[in-house]
Amino acid sequence: MKKKIWGVVAFAAIAGLALSGCSADPLSDGDSSTGGSGDASLTPLKVVVAPIHFEPAYIALGEGFFEEEGLDVELIRGADPTSNIARVVSGEVDITTGSLGTLITSAAAGVPVVAIGGNGFTDAEVPTSGILVMESSDIQGVADLSGRTVGIQGLNTGSEIGMFLAAEDANIDPLSIERVEIASSGMETALVEGTIDGVLASAPFYGQLMARDDVRLISNPSTEFLAGSPITLWTVTETWVENNADTAAAFVRAMEKAQAFYEDPANVEAILDITAEVSDVDRGVLTEA
């Protein structure tokens, strides 16, 4: 399995999954940020969070884990992994959220970025993303996606790796699937209105779609092929971590506390509240999912 994963990563690099261009997601308000107290006794940090698995960062802020580690963190809503990494490379922010695929291909292209920690891992038992189609669609499985359009959150960012592996497993050419870039929050509308044939959606929008009676799941490629891999990675420039090793370590410690909070079943309701507020997804739908 590892050989298949890295084979597709290499293929993605050849196909051009390097830093190029930026795309926005409505989850990002541009200037939308949270935190940043201005306390002079704390080390200020600007951190970009992705439209997926952002909850641990907000937990660290709300529960005071950042402050415990001497950090004054401002969380800034980001978009796709490529544009998020561009922001850290430009020096606009200190730490950003990147995908495994984007980090690998960016580094291969000579972009001086490194990961300082993982932000959650793909669970083999609990799917949080998948390929979905309308119930009325004639698409029954991944093999039927050849020549069809599938909406994804970011083109050439590595988000396609799971789908590529599923396509290979179904004996179709991964590039025969026509990928269309669509903001996560716009996937439901595009699918229901028939603009595209399917979507590769991630939580919390995956759960929102799964709650619909007229939408059908055809594959959970990340769970099947990428279990144990990071959902996202906390990414910095090489220069930044060389000059701020203690700050990076403090950030990782705070996020470890947040991840422990996130994984505690006693905190499910609090986490759903964060998900609904940040992503503007109906709280009731999240409870059902």
How would you explain this protein's 3D organization?
- This protein has helices at residues 2-15, 55-62, 65-68, 81-89, 100-108, 161-169, 187-192, 205-210, 221-225, 238-243, 245-263, 268-279, 283-288; strands spanning 33-35, 43-49, 71-77, 96-98, 113-121, 129-134, 149-152, 178-181, 198-202, 215-219, 230-237.
- It has 289 residues and is α/β, with parallel strands linked by helices.
- It has 13 helices and eleven strands.
- The chain is globular.
- Helix 6 links the parallel strand 7 and strand 8.
- The strands form three sheets. The protein has a five-stranded mixed sheet with strand order 8-7-9-6-10. A three-stranded mixed sheet has the order 1-3-2. It has a three-stranded antiparallel sheet with strand order 4-11-5, sandwiched between helices.
Ends apart, CA distance between termini: 29 Å
Predict the CATH topology of the largest domain.
Answer: D-Maltodextrin-Binding Protein, domain 2
The portion of residues forming beta strands comes to 15-25%
Order of helices and strands: HEEHHEHEHEEEHEHEHEHEHHHH
Mean pLDDT: 84
Structural class by sheet pairing and helices: alpha/beta
CATH superfamily of the largest domain: Periplasmic binding protein-like II
By DSSP, the count of extended strands is 11
So what's the CATH class of the largest domain? Alpha Beta
What is the approximate shape? globular
Architecture blueprint of SSEs:
Elements: H1 2-15, E1 33-35, E2 43-49, H2 55-62, H3 65-68, E3 71-77, H4 81-89, E4 96-98, H5 100-108, E5 113-121, E6 129-134, E7 149-152, H6 161-169, E8 178-181, H7 187-192, E9 198-202, H8 205-210, E10 215-219, H9 221-225, E11 230-237, H10 238-243, H11 245-263, H12 268-279, H13 283-288
Parallel strand pairs: 2-3, 7-8, 7-9
Antiparallel strand pairs: 1-3, 4-11, 5-11, 6-9, 6-10
